[in-house]
Design a protein that fits this description.
This protein is α+β, with helices and mostly antiparallel strands. 19% of the residues lie in helices and 29% in strands. The protein has twelve helices and 40 strands. The strands form nine sheets. Strands 5, 6, 7, 8, 11, 12, 14, 15, 19 and 20 form a ten-stranded antiparallel sheet that branches. An eight-stranded parallel β-barrel has the order 21-22-23-26-29-30-31-32, surrounded by four helices. A six-stranded antiparallel sheet has the order 33-34-35-40-37-38. Helix 6 (415-431) packs parallel to helix 7 (456-473). The longest helix is centred in the last third of the chain and has 21 residues, at 568-588.
């Protein structure tokens, strides 16, 4: 067994000392190189404290004197084994990227295995497995990871939100005590934070040291930042378990979801780059160009008529759409949102010949066909629940949970309910040429239960298993994770889906913030971003088409709008936006995401820079009125300082009804400047009203000349 583990990757390092009775985290932060000291000087022993120096254990436990939140909480009958004393009993290498450490408490009958990997991109992944080696049951309350921050950490940044306002940042000072957030939604949740970041004072998009974690799980969970008087702050992540939810019988094990973590010495964009590069390196990452989507929801809602939908498909083909998705309303009894969920048969009254007539029409126009489903939910007004009222998940005692959007959760832990849903979806995909499922999940459930016992853990795993089995049978079908918008956005669900729906809100102003922070972790090709109607149906705001298009281009672009109503000028402008997306999607979906640190909060600058620095696309948008009369000069981050770039404003175009290129005195076309000049001196930006923007394209002068 090695005394020291020094994992290195992506400019970061994770160093463990295994020479003592328990694993000690020496360092998580910047790469220290191959050679590290044999030992780190011990901290002094404080007055009125433990009679030994404090150390940062990989598994904090009270038996070692840790006075904070222990990593492992649980007990046997009558509270026995309430405080494990785990010690290192073995380790093995997992190649150059990782190590597995075994810890044992023979008296308590517990064995804990910890798998730690640091990828070449700098992605740190941790997972723990607890095995009950005792003769009787062990009730597990919590098993968490605890990662220390480094020198100078002083601020916490995480995200919160609600329906139609997901992933909004909140920042606070790091103080002694515990910043604790518990998510009890039975799913990830609209207020869920995609990451928890702790950084040095004033860390920003492009500067400062940042330690950030993400918990890859779609059920109940808890995150924390804890600062005690004895050491650095710890970032913790764990599944939030219900009373008696995990009881390990003799020989049984519990495996935690993965914790993902990234250290950056160059601000939040460094964290983003680590996550994006690692996600793109997966064998399951989408390898084909992300098709332009048209979703029918905000065009027809529940009013499904073949002639109307074919007319919509005609317009979609004209605009350049590549995937046509039929949303809610196609199955039995589904004329409103109050009935039919669970009855996954094509409605014979609406579709007397099945969906084939529409599917054939869509495919004849050169588009893939996609379909909306919500397999994990049921309406009480449905044939399936009239036949099986016990298939509703809940707390038992004959009590039905309070409704949410007139629906309940189907108890997938029940084998019969699981088998029914799997059979229905399998039949649907087997009998129809469906390329894509928009997989929705439209409610929280705080009392998720099976036969009167809490079942959030098992329900989440059952949902995963349902998707996995369906994917095994239909490997060419892509799946989107939608959960009344962005309430199930995490790397657990993204192990088995190709994209997420960031929000039910297509208001471009709201989407600017939602998408910026969703894409802080997820690369844009995994995030659905649609052009909605002129007036948003969730906020009633009215936006120009150019602003809506600029917002949607930086993601997996689509349209959610009745395009049959477009006049010639709107049709042309939308077609131009679709063409721009197609032209630049390879750059957006492979480049390095960058975000400017602008002093004026009225403006946002963000974009994508090609990996080789040869090309970049930026958006500059105005979110609110500014105190200043003009935006002034803005620097363009992320460019190769030694490359000369030709600068062009590419949208809005000259044919757009709203044309910011006519800004008096603002003519950037034809400018050629080095990346160093563009970053340090910048360019003057146009005068924009709130909810307006421009797209700016930069390309290497040599590449533009074909050299």
């Amino acid at each position: 067994m090695r005394d020291t583990v020094n994992l290195r990757g992506g400019g970061s390092a994770f160093v463990l000392d295994l020479s003592g009775p328990t694993p000690v985290i020496v360092h998580w932060g910047a790469d220290l190189g191959e050679s590290i000291p044999d030992g780190v000087p011990a901290s002094p022993v404080a007055h009125s404290a433990l009679d030994r120096p404090p150390v940062q254990e990989l598994v904090p436990q009270a038996s070692s004197g840790w006075r904070g939140r222990p990593a492992l909480e649980g007990h046997r009958s009558r509270g026995r084994a309430f405080s494990p004393a785990l010690v290192t009993t073995g380790s093995r290498d997992l190649g150059v990227e990782g190590v597995e450490i075994t810890m044992t408490d023979a008296a308590a009958g517990l064995v804990l295995s910890l798998e730690i990997q640091l990828s070449p991109e700098g992605m740190l992944r941790l997972r723990s497995t607890l095995r009950n080696d005792g003769d009787d049951d062990f009730t597990l309350q919590s098993l968490s990871t605890a990662l220390p921050t480094g020198l100078g950490a002083s601020e916490i940044l995480d995200l919160t939100g609600r329906w139609c306002r997901e992933q909004h940042p909140q920042r606070q000072s790091l103080r002694q005590g515990t910043w604790l957030r518990e998510y009890r939604h039975g799913r990830t949740g609209h207020d869920s934070s995609l990451f928890t970041a702790v950084g040095t004072t004033g860390f920003s998009n492009r500067s400062g040291s940042v330690w950030a974690t993400h918990f890859g799980f779609s059920g109940n969970r808890v995150t924390s930042v804890e600062k005690t008087p004895t050491g650095p702050a710890l970032i913790g992540n764990a599944e939030l378990l219900g009373a008696g939810e995990i009881v390990l019988t003799a020989g049984e094990s519990y495996e935690t979801p993965l914790t993902y973590a990234s250290y950056s010495a160059r601000g939040l964009d460094g964290v983003t780059d680590t996550f994006h590069r690692w996600l793109r390196s997966r064998s399951t990452h989408p390898a084909t160009a992300r098709p332009v989507v048209l979703n029918t929801w905000e065009a027809v809602y529940f009013d499904h008529k073949l002639d109307s939908l074919v007319e919509l498909a005609d317009r979609a083909e004209l605009i350049g759409v590549e995937r046509f998705v039929l949303d809610d309303g196609w199955f039995r009894h589904r004329r409103t949102d109050r009935a039919g969920l669970g009855d996954w048969y094509v409605d014979e009254d609406v579709w007397p010949g099945g969906l084939a007539s529409l599917i054939d029409a869509v495919r004849a126009r050169g588009m893939q066909f996609g379909l909306w489903v919500e397999p994990e939910m049921v309406n009480e007004d449905s044939d399936v629940i009239r036949a099986h009222p016990d298939w509703i998940s809940g707390a038992g005692f004959g009590r039905t949970p309070v409704g949410w959007r007139h629906q309940q959760v189907l108890d997938l832990v029940n084998p019969a309910a699981f088998a029914y849903i799997l059979e229905r979806l399998d039949a649907l995909l087997s009998n129809n040429a469906i390329s894509y499922l928009k997989w929705d999940q439209n409610r929280d459930l705080t009392e998720m239960g099976h036969t009167g016992a809490p079942s959030s853990h098992e329900q989440t795993l059952a949902a995963y298993r349902l998707i996995d089995e369906l994917r095994q049978a239909h490997p060419d079908v892509e799946i989107e994770s939608c959960s009344s918008g962005g309430a199930r956005v995490d790397l657990g669900i993204l192990e088995r889906t190709e994209r997420v729906w960031a929000s039910d809100c297509n208001d471009a102003l709201e989407r600017q913030t939602i998408q910026r922070w969703t894409e802080a972790i997820l690369p844009p090709e995994l995030v659905g971003t649609h052009v909605g109607p002129t007036t948003s149906h969730t906020t009633a705001r009215t936006h120009s088409l150019s602003f809506r298009a600029i917002t949607a281009i930086f993601g997996h672009f689509g349209i959610e709008w009745d395009v049959r109503t477009l006049g010639d000028s709107e049709l042309l402008e939308l077609s131009e936006a679709v063409a721009l997306y197609k032209k630049h999607r390879a750059l957006i979906h492979s480049g390095v995401a960058v975000h400017g640190d602008l002093v004026d909060p009225a403006y946002l600058l963000g974009g994508s820079v090609a990996q080789d620095g040869s090309e970049a696309l930026y958006s500059f948008v105005c979110l609110a009125t500014s105190f200043d009369e003009i935006p002034g000069r803005v620097g363009f981050p992320g460019l190769d300082p030694d490359v000369r770039y030709d600068v062009t404003v590419i949208f809005p175009t000259a044919t757009s009804p709203y044309n910011q290129r006519s800004n008096a005195g603002w003519i950037p076309d034809g400018i050629t400047a080095s990346g160093r000049f563009l970053a340090e001196v910048g360019l003057p930006m146009p005068i924009l009203n709130p909810e307006q923007g421009v797209l700016i394209h930069l390309v290497s002068s040599l590449e533009a000349a074909g050299l």
